[in-house]
Amino acid sequence: AVAFWIAHSLPFDHAEYGMRQIFDMRTAAVSLINAFFPFFNITAHSIALTMLAAAIAYLILGLVFVSFLGRPLCFLILAISLTSLFGAFLFVQAGDYRHHGFILISIVFVLWIAQDYPQELGPFLKKKKEALIFWAQRARSGALILMAICFLLGLRNVYFVYELEYHLDFSGAKRMALAIEQLDEKKHIFS
Question: Is 20 helix (H, G, I), strand (E, B) or coil?
Answer without folding.
Answer: coil
